[in-house]
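Morning, I've got a small favour to ask if you have a moment. I'm working through a protein record and want to make sense of it properly. The fold is given in discrete form, as structure tokens running alongside the sequence. Can you walk me through what the tokens say about the fold? Thanks so much in advance, here it is:
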Amino acid sequence: MPKHRKSAALEEKISILPDTPGVYMYYDSEGTVIYVGKAKNLKRRVSSYFNRTHDSLRTNLLVRAIADMSYIVVPTEQDALNLEASMIKEHQPRYNVLLKDDKSYPWIVVTNEPFPRVFMTRQRIKDGSKYYGPYTDAGSARATLDLVRHLYRIRSCRHLITPDYVKAGKGRLCLDYHLKRCGGCCTGLVSSEEYCSDIDRVRAILRGDVSELLDYLRGEMEKLSSELRFEEAQVLKEQYDLIRRYQAKSVIVSQTIGDVDVFGVHDEDDEAYINYMHIRHGAVVKSVTLEYRRRLDETVPQLLAYAMAEISETLGVVYDEVVVAEMPDCEMPDVRFSIPRRGDKAKLLEVSQKNARQHRVDKVKTIEKRDPSARTDRILERMRTDFRLSELPRHIECFDNSNIQGTNPVASCVVFKDAKPSKKDYRHFNIRTVEGPDDFASMKEVLTRRYSRLVNEGQPLPQLIVVDGGKGQLSAAVEALDDMGLRGTIAVVGIAKRLEEIYFPGDSIPLYIDKNSESLRVVQQLRDEAHRFGITHHRNRRSKGQAVSELDSIKGVGEKTRTALLSRFRSVKRLREADLDAIAEVVGPAKASVVYAALHS
């Protein structure tokens, strides 16, 4: 199927989209929003518009009209659903059919009456009633409503029932009473106090405060099961499971929040990213991210003040209530600032901060897509900062020792250049001067041999040495550099395996780098590669030694003879089982007699 053509700028934006839930907006050539959509996976959903021809003519016309796009990331798919609804109502896009009218997602309302009703609605009226939701679909709202009606006898009629209404005897018992779905409050069979007590429990369920109810249902299930009333216990179990799956109200839409402005900050090195979100009637309708590069070590409160001034000037915003993580460095007496720690406002602030972080990620991806070397420079710059280096570590070498109870001790040296393995520069070392399992002395010997040779041959030295081990191995490496007069010329660190601590010379307290840091990942890759390379060499050397050890001790048998015999018989065991004539066929009668006699002495 042919693909729809798109501009290079639009193609680049799509290529760096995150694999997260969110809402995307398409714009035409005049900058008008022509479509708003939601996605569980932004990258996959947006890409699907352009990689095939659609069956719908309307969709094909939409794709041809797309000139640009933007998006907002959110924590969950439900949040994307609610944000999509609010943005469609705000922008009225040409290609959106649903949600353009006043119809919204369903809520459950508990009315403000002496005997409150509980029902589903899509319209919210400011009459003192309490609304819960919104729900992602009418089915889940109906299921929750069925649950509370099954648990409690709540009236479903539309009569305005008051104490005077009951005293006047105007009420009549209906079918719901006879089906045990209503307690008959209209005739006074249920008092206002009893009825409102049930309503309080219903409110708790709709708020998500269901721990007490769950305990009650669990107890009833156990009681019914012990009485062998399994069918009734199964009904309660279904109710229990339904309550457990019940989701609280949306993060993005909240009836407890009116019109507020939110500023989330992502601060990184000399750059700061400040996301602005405008909330109207509890829903996000606008999101903009500003970038700032520090020149005079400005603080986050100072940058927040700059951002508020810029947003006010460019978008014409008049602030009333502003949600921030910390107070901006400015005097605004007419503005109420909130620094929330929990609740809906705190969740909105978290969403804003997430969008600020995502903007930084998108910027880095764009730069690295245009210039692949930029990623390498960024990683090396991070390593230079983390490991306190004076220059970029473009050439790194890592050492690891391998032995089994002191036998066949070897060491490996792996080389990374520009944060990537340079396998042609890998080296093995057989330990010569150390007797027994002494990793510290082995490390000192290997570094001495390695860098003495590089200095003598005039070869370039690395900017960073990584030794696999803690303070002991690091001290041995430092002694070797001291003896060669290279201390201060080459930086050296040690990495301990247990908690991935980084040790520096002369510092007993290790550095704990963020587990997600690219610096730590490079060092871990170095350490793992050195371990793999060293173990492979140690295994080969040990196997070779075991295979020819008996032949090595036979006088008059050289390397060529040993190789010929092992090639023919595969092992010393099979060679010992062979007769003299079979050995003579390989190495001649004279050497065959010597080998046969040695193996059978």
